[in-house]
Design brief:
With 168 residues, the protein is an all-alpha fold. It has three helices and no strands. The protein folds into two domains: 100 residues; 55 residues, no CATH class. It is 80% helix and 0% strand.
Length: 168
């Protein structure tokens, strides 16, 4: 006999203790399974959301990549246009400088001559040059109004195929 159990209830207590422990273990295991399942379901929901977000980001990335490509093409076109504009500006500057040089040359000629005295002394010489200049201006005017951009400085049409200058 056991000396520790004077009433004889030791066997009943041990069974109750064991049943309580097993019950607590069962409850603990059930709670653990429930919490694990809820966590698993939450992770599945997060995975679904992340997959949707990933698909959205891939789509957005493709759109942004196309936008960047288009912008790069526009920048290239703009650079080409800017270079062409720079060349045109340089050509315009050269033409302006040539025109100013011609203006200075003509002003120098006019400043050295008194055309009033020359016209009185030699009227035929001045009259012939003025008439020739007037005819030339009218020829250029007629040529430019009938074939714009295809006339030389004497009012003659420039042939496109061989560069010949036939008479109008």
């Amino acid at each position: 006999m056991h000396t520790s159990d004077p009433d004889g209830n030791g066997a009943k207590m041990t069974i109750l203790h064991k049943a309580g422990i097993y019950g607590l273990l069962a409850v603990g295991l059930s709670v653990s399974i429930y919490l694990g399942y809820n966590h698993y379901q939450g992770l599945l929901g997060q995975i679904g959301t992340l997959q949707q977000d990933n698909a959205t980001l891939h789509t957005s990335f493709a759109v942004e990549k196309e936008t960047v490509t288009q912008l790069e093409e526009l920048v290239t076109e703009w650079q080409i246009a800017a270079e062409a504009a720079e060349l045109r500006a340089q050509a315009l500057q050269e033409n302006t400088e040539a025109a100013r040089a011609e203006l200075r040359r003509l002003n120098d000629i006019f400043s050295r001559h008194d055309f009033t005295l020359l016209a009185r002394a030699k009227p035929g010489l001045i009259e012939r040059r003025i008439n020739d200049g007037t005819d030339r201006v009218f020829s250029v005017f007629v040529c430019e109004t009938t074939t714009p951009g295809r006339c030389d400085s004497n009012g003659r049409t420039i042939a496109e195929d061989e560069g010949n200058t036939p008479e109008p």
